Amino acid sequence: MTLPPLPSRYERWVGQLSAPAWRERKQAVTALRELVELDVDDLDALERLAERLLDGLVSDDALNGRASCHEVLVAIGKAALPGLLRRIEQPGTGQRLLVDLLGEIGDRSQSARLVRIVTNPQEDTNLRGSAAVALGKLGGSDAAAALASLLHDPIPMLRMHALEALRAGGLPLEPEVARPLLADPYTRKAAAAVLGNTDRIEAARLLVPLLGDDRAGVRAAAAVSLARLDGRLAHPSSLAPLLRDCDADTREKLRALLDHSSVDVQAAAMLLAGLAEDAEILPRLLERMDEPALGEQVLATVAALGQAAAGVALQIARDVPEMQRQHLLRVLGVLPTPVDPRLLEVLTEGLQQAAHDEERAVAAAESLERVGTQSTLPELFRAMSHPGRGGEAAAAAVVAILRRAAVPEALDAVLGVSWPHEGPLAANLCRVFGELGSVRHASHLVTLLGSVDTSVRVAAATALGQLPGEHEGASALAFALADEEPQVRAAACRSLGQLHAPSSVHSLLTATEDRSAIVRATAVQALVAMNDPAALPRLRAIIAEDPVPSVVVQAIAGLGAGDLDQDLTMLMSLCTSEDWEVVKAAARALRSFSEHRATAALLGLLSHPRWDVRWAAAEVLALRDDETALQPLRQALPAERDRVVRKVIRDAIEHLESIR
Question: Is 659 in a helix, a strand, or coil?
Answer without folding.
Answer: coil
